[in-house]
Each structure stands twice: as C-alpha cells, then as structure tokens.
Amino acid sequence: xxxxxxxxxxxxxxxxxxxxxxxxxxxxxxxxxxxxxxxxxxxxxxxxxxxxxxxxxxxxxxxxxxxxxxxxxxxxxxxxxxxxxxxxxxxxxxxxxxxxxxxxxxxxxxxxxxxxxxxxxxxxxxxxxxxxxxxxxxxxxxxxxxxxxxxxxxxxxxxxxxxxxxxxxxxxxxxxxxxxxxxxxxxxxxxxxxxxxxxxxxxxxxxxxxxxxxxxxxxxxxxxxxxxxxxxxxxxxxxxxxxxxxxxxxxxxxxxxxxxxxxxxxxxxxxxxxxxxxxxxxxxxxxxxxxxxxxxxxxxxxxxxxxxxxxxxxxxxxxxxxxxxxxxxxxxxxxxxxxxxxxxxxxxxxxxxxxxxxxxxxxxxxxxxxxxxxxx
Length: 376
What we know:
Blueprint: H1 14-19, E1 43-44, E2 51-53, E3 57-58, E4 61-62, H2 66-78, E5 81-85, H3 91-105, H4 109-113, E6 124-126, E7 141-148, H5 165-190, H6 197-201, E8 208-216, E9 228-231, E10 237-241, E11 249-253, E12 256-259, E13 267-271, E14 275-279, E15 286-290, E16 306-308, E17 316-324, H7 351-361, H8 367-370
Parallel strand pairs: 1-12, 2-5
Antiparallel strand pairs: 3-4, 5-13, 6-7, 7-8, 8-17, 9-16, 10-13, 10-17, 11-12, 11-16, 14-15
Helix pairs in contact: 3-5
Cofactor: Fe(2+); L-ascorbate
Domain Fe2OG dioxygenase: 206-325
Catalytic activity: jasmonate + 2-oxoglutarate + O2 = (1R,2R)-12-hydroxyjasmonate + succinate + CO2
C-alpha cells in the first residue's frame, strides 16, 4: 500500500490527445455503459442546486438573516450542494485565479512536465487518479498543491509560469481559507452547536487545505467519457470555482444526474465525507457527527455523489479548494451520538490513511466508503 512512487503505466496527457485532433478517443477513456453520461432518462436538466446570497457574512461581520441560515440548512440536508454569491471574495481575484491556471495549462509541455506528479502525494501536474493498472481513465489533466499546513506549503512545487501564478494562488488561498472558516461557523450554528465546534473538531487552526485545478480538454466523443468519475469528496468542505461559461458538474439526486448551472462569480460548496449529522430526538434537533471519511447511512447532512461531463466544442477549467481536518487526527463521532442502540458504524481512521486508501483505486462513487463499514 505504501509503494506509491510511480504510476503503473506511462502517463499520457489528455490535453495532448485532444490537441492531436483524433476523431475517436482511445479505449482507455471509454466508460462502461452504466457510467456513460448519455442516458438522458437519468439526467434532470430542469433542476439546479440552491443559490444562496451571503450578504452579511464577512470577516468583520456575522449578520446573516435567519432566512439565509435556513436556506443553507435545507441545502445541506436535501442537496449536500449549494452555490453562494456575495461571499466576500473579489470577483476580480476569482477571474485572475482561473485565467492564470488556464495560462499554465496552455504553456509548452516542457514547462508543465517540470511539475509532473507521482501517486505518492499527487502534488503537481497530473493526468490520472488511482494506481490500478489497466483502469478506465478520466478525460482530464489537473494540478494539485498544498496550501495548509504551512509545513506542506512549498512554493517551489507551485507553477512559476505564468509570472503572476504563485502570487495569485497565494492570495486566492488566503481568501478561501477565510470563507471556509465562515461557512464552518454557519454550519455549527445551524446544527445547534457552539460556532467554533466544527472548526475545533477539525483541529482548530491546524487544518489542512489544498487546491486541485481541473483542466477538461475538448473531447471528440463526450457521450463515451467522463472528465471526472462519480465520487464523493473525502474531506470537510469543497469550494469550487467553476467555469460559468461551460457547465460540466453533475450532482446525483433521487437517482438522477443534475447538471449544475453555475452562477457568475459564485462558489459551489459541497459537504465532504467528514461532515455528518444525525437526528437525535423527536424535536428534529440536529447535531453534528464528524466521522473520518465515511458517510453514515442515517446522516441528514450527506456527502453527495458527483461527476464531471466533458464537451466536444469547448475546454473547461475549474478550481476545487478542499478544506480538511488535520491529517493525523483519528476523528470519532461526538460521544452523545454513540450508544448501545446506535453504535459507531466505522472504525476511526485518520485523513492521511483514508487518502492513501482512495489513492489506490481512484474515484469509484461511494463504494469505497461503504466498503469500510465495521462488521455488525
């Protein structure tokens, strides 16, 4: 399990395949029939995840109206996803962040290859997830880097080109750490807890934060491939800056895939596997359950399956910022939620251990989470 120093097969950059103008995609990228995005009967094109206005929530102000708190609570229970506008992050910074990364992916290959990654950490320029030999691959390239803790933050592993790239990434990361902390407070308040309880469960100030920039090149057969296979996020919160001009994210709800319609300068926020809640009494009083990397079957706040489709006419880029617990803490359920009648469903596992587990297989819906259930 620790032998993750190299990929099982030579790495092929998907962007290079796309730019070669091939008329059909290689077999390695063709998904099984059950996973292809062409089943129209399983797609809901009319719905959209909630869009919530965060006016009143800022670094210096905590004055969200009760109606907004309710909207966030409902979105977490019913969707696991929501979009936020008026969130306090500069629209200009959001645009700069997206465009410097677009500049990186359109740099010459010899510049990008300097940052080629390995499965040991994923850090750097990559083109596949998981190390299963012969696996069906996703139609995407990416760049992964650490922002927190500071012991993992290494500017030398961040792209030096375009010229402003490192500066923009740093500024963007600072703003998203702040926004994530404010969202964590809202979730705590909504769950009837002290506003810092969720944050403290994640390690207080010693949290982890990382960025994965996804690049989805044009695909000549988008009905056969996926940009990113179905999965749920293993961390705490994900703040996604989408490409508002090219929809691609799909969320699974009630057995159907919903293509998210991004609002301009909005972040798409989703609950990760770390954040779980359980209804504990007849008054529908919700409390929080933090349980390392696993979704409880009776959870009301769920990490939700999602995937990314690709486009034949336009490339797409998105920035996924992950706000995670301290990597070496074995997180357990809140004691008041565990009893003889309701035992813990999973054994404790640190975030580092679970990330290694996921790394072996790559994204596979929620089957990997389910496989870790304790025998009962």
